UniProtKB/TrEMBL annotation:
Its main location: membrane. It is found in: Cell membrane; Membrane. Belongs to the major facilitator superfamily. Proton-dependent oligopeptide transporter (POT/PTR) (TC 2.A.17) family. It is a multi-pass membrane protein. Residues 1-482 form the Major facilitator superfamily (MFS) profile domain. It comes from the Bacteria. SUPFAM superfamilies: MFS general substrate transporter (SSF103473). Pfam families: PTR2. Keywords: Cell membrane, Membrane, Transmembrane, Transmembrane helix, Transport. It comes from Microbacterium capsulatum. This is Peptide MFS transporter.
Length: 489
């Protein structure tokens, strides 16, 4: 590769993809199709679990079904640890991304073809493991396209986020249509086809990614590979035994994932902060990431209820009548991606235009949490209503507020994780950000048990108030947090 080509692939001067490096298009594409399959499947998963057998579902109690969905979502982000570790120690980010896409496709095929609980178990495990590997490493690969001080960085991550939400929009729309017309397993099958399309597209474009995306930053000695295999086998055996013994059950999955994510979080921060391979400046930046992490957990514990409480709410309380036709429940999950598609470019342009004058990362995080809390308070005027009493336009407005909050925190969090990451823990720092999403998502499933349609005021007001207080706390702490971040904004 020539010097010119190398410079081009680093993204320092390349502006062919809407002002961003052309290599971003390849990661944009595979993530778009992965999100199509992920959200398409998730759009019908909860109702598949609690709909009766006569409706094509499994007939589980709603609280148990919500807990499973929350635990599954949390497991996706929890497994980013595994994907990040394999990338940093064994394969590099780009290869893990590619192999993860194959595992995800196998998971969707299992959901489509295997009946009952067996299909749910096998499919969700494979999708969770594969999605975790893909998510942490896709973000890390995007980070390799920019130098640390490139002002396009946040704008590039926002554009990457647009790809995610293009898939998130079309997935629930199309799988919901198939589910409501010919059955759940056809909807799951479409998700598998979408992932296959993403894998095919990425196979042709992966060679154009920079060499940095293939680098193994902390190679594991070959002599330790057998030990890794033994540990992996023992972990699988322990999980199987716990399931057979009844310790791990459908009704406590979200609690188990919350505990696992907490242990992993504490261990991750301890390992990184105590490492001799990071400098004093890098250690300070990791400490600066801690309050962002806490704020992120509070945010995602509310935001991810789109797939738990809001799905139940949409099924029972929302007026989904459109000119005499009742739209599928899953379509509500396509509302947020529409706003993301419209607003992500606006936010990217704003951050790019402001340059060094844009609000700092802690300020963006703080307002993201506060606005998310406000979104929950907006449910209060409709509390205690009858079946199908909430206007569709009201949910559209509330989800617009969800979106503004999301754009202030989620793509910014991905960018911040790559900027604050120590050199020796680059991908694993991204996984640490995803751990905050894992905790928040699992908590969102655990919270379903407290949702009472007959008395909604305490639920929405308490959770909304907590998020607002967390955001205000971070806002008051901006100066010390910025001091810990050592020049990173």
């Amino acid at each position: 590769m020539s010097t010119t080509q190398q410079a081009e692939h680093t993204g320092d001067h390349d502006t062919r993809f809407f002002g961003q490096p052309w290599a971003l298009a390849h990661v944009f594409g595979v993530e778009m199709w992965e999100r199509f399959s992920f959200y398409g499947m998730q759009g019908i998963l909860l109702i598949y679990l609690y709909y009766s057998a006569t409706e094509g579902g499994l007939g589980l109690p709603k609280a148990v079904a919500g807990g499973i969905v929350g635990a599954y979502g949390g497991s996706v982000y929890l497994s980013t640890i595994l994907g990040a570790w394999i990338a940093d120690r064994m394969l590099g980010s780009e290869r893990v991304l590619f192999f993860s896409a194959i595992v995800i496709m196998a998971g969707h095929i299992s959901l489509a073809l295997l009946p009952g609980i067996a299909g749910v178990g096998v499919g969700l495990v494979l999708i969770a493991i594969g999605s975790g590997g893909l998510k942490a490493n896709a973000t890390s690969v995007v980070g390799t396209l920019y130098s640390a001080d490139d002002p396009r960085r946040d704008g590039g991550f926002s554009l990457f986020y647009l790809g995610i939400n293009l898939g998130a929009f079309f997935g629930p729309i199309l799988t919901g249509l198939l589910q409501s017309s010919i059955g759940f397993h056809f909807g799951f099958g479409l998700a598998a086809i979408g992932m296959a399309a993403g894998l095919l597209q990425y196979s042709f474009g992966r060679r154009a990614l920079p060499a940095e995306s293939h680098r193994i930053v902390n190679p594991l000695p070959r002599g330790r590979y057998p030990l890794v295999g033994i540990v992996a086998g023992a972990a699988i055996l322990v999980i199987v035994v716990l399931v057979l013994a009844g310790v791990i059950r459908a009704d406590n999955l979200s609690t188990i994932v919350i505990l696992a994510a907490l242990v992993a979080t504490i261990a991750y921060f301890a390992v990184i902060l105590s490492s001799r391979r990071i400098t004093a400046t890098e250690r300070s930046r990791v400490w600066g990431f801690l309050p962002l992490f806490i704020t992120s957990v509070a945010f995602w514990s509310l935001y991810q209820q789109q797939f738990t409480v809001l799905t139940v709410y949409s099924d029972t309380r929302l007026d989904r009548n459109l000119f005499g036709w009742e739209m599928p429940v899953s379509w509500v999950q396509s509302i947020n991606p529409v706003f993301i598609i419209v607003l992500s470019g606006v936010f990217a342009a704003i951050w790019t235009k402001l340059g060094d004058r844009q609000p700092s990362t802690p300020v963006k995080f703080a307002f993201g949490a506060i606005i998310m809390g406000v979104a929950f308070l907006l449910f209060l005027p409709f509390a205690g209503g009858a079946a199908n009493s909430t206007p569709l336009l009201a949910i559209v407005g509330i989800l617009l507020v969800f979106t503004v909050a999301e754009l202030l925190l989620s793509p910014i969090g991905l960018s911040a994780a790559t900027k604050l990451a120590p050199t020796a823990f680059h991908t694993q720092m991204v996984a640490l950000f995803f751990l905050s999403i894992s905790l928040g998502t699992a908590i969102s499933g655990w919270l379903v048990q407290f949702y009472n349609p007959k008395n909604e005021v305490p639920y929405f007001s308490i959770l909304g108030g907590i998020a607002i207080l967390v955001g205000i706390g971070l806002l008051l702490s901006v100066r010390p947090v910025m001091a810990l971040m050592k020049g990173v904004r």
